[in-house]
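We both want to read discrete structure tokens more fluently, so let's practise on a single case. Once you have written the record down, we can walk along the chain together.
***
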Amino acid sequence: MKKIYAALLLTSIGLSVQAQTIVNRNADIDKMVKAVNQDSLKLYISKMVAFGTRNTLSDIKSKSKGIGAARNWVVSKFAQFAKQSDGRLTTFLDTTTFKPDGKRLDQPTLLGNAVAILKGTDENDKRVYVVSGHLDSRVTDVMNRTSDAPGANDDGSGVAGVIEAARIMSRFKFSATIIFVAVSGEEQSLLGSGFMAAKAKKENWNIDAMLNNDMIGSNNSSETQIIDNTRLRVFSEGLPSYDLDKNAKSIRQFGLENDGKSRQLARYVKEIGERYVDQLEVKLIYRNDRFLRGGDHTPFVENGFTAVRITEMNENFEHQHQDLRTEKGVRFGDLQEFMDFEYLRKNTGVNIAVLANLAKAPAAPTEVKIDVKNLSNSSYLYWKVPITGSVKGYYVLMRETSSPVWEKKFYTTATELRIPYSKDNYLFAVQSVGNENNESLPIVPGIGR
């Protein structure tokens, strides 16, 4: 019996060793993530709450109250960080005027997005990565521009994360360009992000990915009373909002309903976020946004860009879109006291890790194909080198069609690979790997003959 037990024990140890995964972290990215500071995040939130209301329709002339003072303050923070960037970080207030629409605008409104651009070091690398939160806040009545609307979590948390990311990342160099933005007008029907997305499309910005952060600092839910700061949601569209009619046939034919660019970005957020941030699980939500609701990434996907929404796992509706009051012992309002700054620290770290890994990586491989010339039980993929960036090698990714995440990675230094797995049963993609092991976004192969 002892011999049998010993044999079983050795077998179980062997299986355990085989199942272990080595986590390799880039030293610079690890340093950035560890630099996220709870006290800094608290100071940003406190300052935003002190503006009283940040409603898009509120005062834009006061230096201490309203949305005008708030957006000028964000620009001033970006300008402060620019001093440590060797001239690579520039900041400005990007403004436009909206006419009354009879819905959520009852007056001509000068809207301003607070923008900071961290210029990439490679002039040939035209890739752009955008990270956003929305600066505006509201109470129960979205048209109420005078009552205090602290907006600590919605979306002071997202803006605080963006500001902290700019503070930390402006000290480092990246091949690609990163744009940090605190948009306005989200509560007035995504006006600020819509303005920015339309501008990006018109001016042909090469936006490779956009991360929208909206409510990333509260750990608990109303009604169900769940408390949990170990999970984070990432929402991504399945079928592409842009040009779906042109792509629908190939999506159906090749079984790619779950492999749009935004869905690939969501998987990337999960892999890289969990690689660098401990005690956090990134949950993939197969919707563009919460049920029948929207966020600032939506205008980007509608304009053909790759974008996702990053949001806390549990929403508390007692502290969202509420007048400040107490009813039956329940305190309503989006106040700082209801936030979890350790959770906000972790969620900010996810953004930094993803942005840094993308901006440090070479561009994705080009002309990725899977051969269908002959029937076979193996799969042959081939591709061309990326347009920019120094490449160490490539990963061919593989997963079963029912798997939400990539399950295997095959490394090669060539621009082709044949693997003994049938394309009938598996899905594939290819990503570039840089000299510091930073990976590009995966590219799903087209048909090659």
The chain has two domains: 27-360, 366-448.
